[in-house]
Every structure is written in structure tokens, then in C-alpha cells.
Amino acid sequence: MAPSFGIAFGGGGARGLAHIHVIEALDELGIRPVAIAGSSIGAIMGAGMASGMTGKDIHD
User: Fold this and answer.
1) 42: exposed, middle or buried (Cβ count in 10 Å: 0-12, 13-18, 19+)
2) CA angle, 18 then 56 then 54, to 5°
3) What is the pLDDT of residues 2-34, one digit of tens each?
4) Which residue in 45, 44, 33 sits closest to 5, CA to CA?
């Protein structure tokens, strides 16, 4: 069985923008979490990721 992981994104305006880089790095590695959670701006970033958007899509 392959390892799996979940990711939680925190809140805070400027910190939330840093989540984009994490999502882009995961895209480059070709891995996706099995669970996504977040609060405030982290919830928005997590929702984008959960809907299938790439880090580049969110960045744009």
C-alpha cells in the first residue's frame, strides 16, 4: 500500500499566499493529499486544490 497524507492550510492573509508554493511543489512531485483542510484563506486555497486546480491555476 502506498503512503498517503492529508494537508491542513492555516489562516492569515500573507501566510495564505505561501500555500500556493506548497501546492505548486506538490504538483511538481505529482502527489495529491487524500484529505485537505483549512481555515480562512487556507480554506480557500484548499478548496481550489480539492476542486482540481493546479498551483499555477491558483497563482494566476
Assistant:
1) buried
2) 95
3) 789 999 999 987 887 899 999 999 999 999 999
4) 33
Half-sphere exposure of 38 (CA within 13 A, CB side): 21
CA–CA distance, 42 with 2 (Å, rounded to integer): 26
What is the reported pTM?
0.86
Residue 42 · residue 10 · CB < 8 Å = yes
**Residue 14 dihedral angles phi and psi, to the nearest 5°:** -65, -40
C-alpha cell at 39: 481555515
The Cα–Cα gap between 4 and 56 comes to 23
Q: Residue with C-alpha cell 480562512?
A: 40
